[in-house]
Request: fold
Amino acid sequence: MAEGILLSTDRCIIRKALLSDARFIIQLLNQNSFIDNIGDKNVFDIPSANEYIQKSFLTPYQSGLTAPYIVCLHTGEPIGVAGFYQRPYLKAPDLGYAFIDRFTGQGFALESCRSLMDFAKTALLLPAVNAITDLSNAGSQKLLIKLGFTGVGFLQVDPNNKPVKLFTHDLAD
Reply:
């Protein structure tokens, strides 16, 4: 595979992020759907996008493959992010994803996340993966169930925010 490409699916390439993804990251992080379901990351310009890419993507790559990635069409156009986040409050990595609104509802998230879950099991040898969603994010909850996740309760991540729904997927089977 070409440098930086982690996985390839029927319609997508999952690759490592680059600082040149800054404009895409600004667009993704400033969609109302991202802010409503994930939160406002205060990334509004190229310097803050580069800082976000460094902290959220490039630094985790240095410690292994349990990290988020850029999801692109085979044309190279970035359409979303998906991957694994090691949250301090979860024992297993957390599958997270977000897509540009015009690419939602077309199966790209399911296709990308399914490939990442196979990768988690066969290459990363993870025994389990978690996921969290906003309580009102029915679309993400439905996708997680399609991927084989089970809802296991609620989690209060931040005392200033409402609880989130916690899912888990045992990969040891």
Observations:
- Residues 72 and 78 are 4 Å apart (CA to CA).
- The chain has five helices and eight strands.
